[in-house]
Amino acid sequence: MFYGTYRLLTRLFFCLSFPIFLVYALLTGRDRTGLAQRLGLYDMGKMRHSGGPTIWLHGASVGEIGAAVPLLEKITESFPEVNLVVTTVTEQGLKMARKSMGNTATCLVAPLDVPGAVTRAIRSIKPDIYLCLETELWPNTLAGLRNSGATCFLLNARMSEKSFRRYRRLRGFTSQVLAGFTSIAAITNADAIRLIDLGAAPEKVTVCGNLKYDLPPVLDQEKIRQNWQKFLALTDATPVLMAGSTHSGEEVLLLKVFVDLKRDCPGLLLILAPRHLSRLGTIAAELSAEGADYDLLSQIKERGRRNNIVIIDSMGDLPTLYSVATYVFCGGSLVERGGHNIMEAARWGRPVFYGPSMKDFADAKELLEKGGGGFQVDNAGDLRGKIRQMTVTPELYQRAAVNAARVAAGENGATDRQLQPVRAVLQKITKHD
Predict the structure, then answer these.
(1) Nearest in space to 179 (alpha carbons), one of 132, 148, 133, 146
(2) Per-residue model confidence as pLDDT tens digits over 133-192
(3) Helices 2-28 & 171-178, crossing angle to 10 degrees?
């Protein structure tokens, strides 16, 4: 009854809303990307066909696609014959999927969760296995996959308290949707409890940790640190305040924190890593207006470091630059941007500070705070105060550093844990040993 009602409502909603959406897309030029694909109209002629099973992985947007990359890499290492199809909802997610997985996977826009689009998509893709990341519970899609004979897995499953309250109003329907999964890999115990309360079979739910924080081990950590120290003309005693993935409005705040801290710590170095390199000109103008001199990271290679402020103007260097940090601030958190991945810094054994806007990484925030390696600050003054406290209390700093590394290490292995039941099914299909 629930599914029948849902199918009827989605058909009705589609018939009423799609013509309006189509006119909007044609007039504005927005949301045209993958318009046919949203209707399940896929040209699978260019899809890789190896004769092996087909895996369809779905992730809503950029964050889920990022978590999917190492997941699919591990699958193809053991099962190179599989055919991979990746779908996502957003244009940004599609761009990232094609950039990171375009050579090994067919990357598409996900179909709308209406019966016709879903049916066409499943007939085109012909998946043997469906991997759903986080909690993208699309009832028509899951019902269609189940009827087609595909084995469905819910990976990296999260269920916030807010989502839980919403889903619980339709617990009977939600339990039917969750029943379509062969197994569910929950991120935390709280996620598992909520999913079971919504009707998931307890024997299907396993707590596995978060794919996003299962970062690959850093080889030659000491060598990496020494190389950056040499490049930046640092010694082991040079204190460094690293601000990663900063957004508009945060650089000026951090500059003021840096100037205040420098009175007690003359050798302090500030490294700013803006989230978007397109803002470099704006940041440079803001620092100049405050009378601050700086070096771009690209300039240091040619002339050496001349100033105590460095702006990272390259992609890909931030993860290893954390190795020379003393204190780390995670950007996008003193302004309303939802924060960024604080585990990237924690795995280097560095205390991590962040503002109150961490909704996109609330689980990592909770893990680090419970473990004693992460610290929320309410404003720039609070950040300055907490750093100063650690500066004058070395044992407090050392304890926080050890705690941060321990928490980050505890997330290692999440990918393998979540893939265990998927591998079991693949072994049966491919008859691998």
Answers:
(1) 146
(2) 998 899 999 999 999 999 999 999 999 888 999 999 999 999 999 999 999 999 989 999
(3) 80
3-class SS of residue 306: coil
Do 332 and 354 touch, CB atoms closer than 8 A? no
Structural domains for the chain: 23-214+413-430 (3.40.50.11720), 221-410 (3.40.50.2000)
- Which residues are CB-neighbours of 210 under 8 A, at least 6 positions away? 156, 187, 363, 364, 411, 414
Burial class from Cβ neighbours inside 10 Å (0-12, 13-18, 19+) for residue 244 reads buried
Running DSSP on this structure, what letter comes out for residue 31?
T
CA-wise closest residue to 204 among 223, 225, 181, 224: 181
Q: Could you identify the residue written with the tokens 């996003």?
A: 212
237, 364 in Cβ contact below 8 A?
A: no
In the numeric block, which tokens belong to residue 261?
């801290």
Contacts of 60 (CB under 8 A, 6+ apart): 88, 89, 90, 93, 133, 134, 136
Q: Three-state DSSP class for 329? A: strand
Residues in Cβ contact with 8 at an 8 Å cutoff, skipping those fewer than 6 apart: none
Residue 360: is its pLDDT beyond 80? Answer: yes
SS3 264: coil
Residue 245 has pLDDT above 80, yes or no: yes
Contact 112, 140 (CB under 8 A): no
Note whether 164 and 190 are within 8 A (CB). Answer: no
Distance from chain centroid for Cα 295: 30
- The model's pLDDT over 280-327, given as tens digits with 9 standing for 90+, comes to 999 999 999 999 999 999 999 889 999 999 999 998 899 999 999 999
